[in-house]
Amino acid sequence: GFEVVSAGDLNLDEPEETEFTFAGNALIKARAAAEATGAPALSDDSGIAVTALGGMPGVNTADWAGHPRDFYKAMEKVERDLQAANAEDRSAKFVCCLAVVWPDGHEETYQGEVHGTLTWPPRGEMGFGFDPVFVPLNRTETFAELKPDEKHAMSHRADAFKKLKAALL
What we know:
Radius of gyration: 17 Å
Shape: globular
Structural class: alpha+beta
Strand order of the largest sheet: 1-2-3-4
Distance between the termini: 11 Å
Number of helices: 4
Largest sheet: 4 strands, antiparallel
């Protein structure tokens, strides 16, 4: 019953993400889209939070290694930072926050998480971002080694969408 149109299809400008939380950045994007279109807007912000690094890279995941974006360099930087800290704790979580904003200003956010550990060196050819170094709890494969349907069923995005669906539909 919904027609989904992307911000790219509508040629909307991408707003600058200036918040320090996933929810804050997701809301910036959803507010901008709702204001520009007069329609309800859904956006997300997501990333990986490494326990031993105080939750970093967090909202800075995409730009962790600088510009241009290079996730292999970003994974290497996380590994170097863990080694420099002599970190024994390699726990991490992927976080996804969905924001829904209606034209009347009503806003809601839904956060999903998947917990796991980091491995090195990277393994697997599927997925993107930090998937080759992330092993979800109770699994031995990285996200990049899992079949896409297996990964998507347990991902942080699946968790967030499950919460959004329960609340809105």
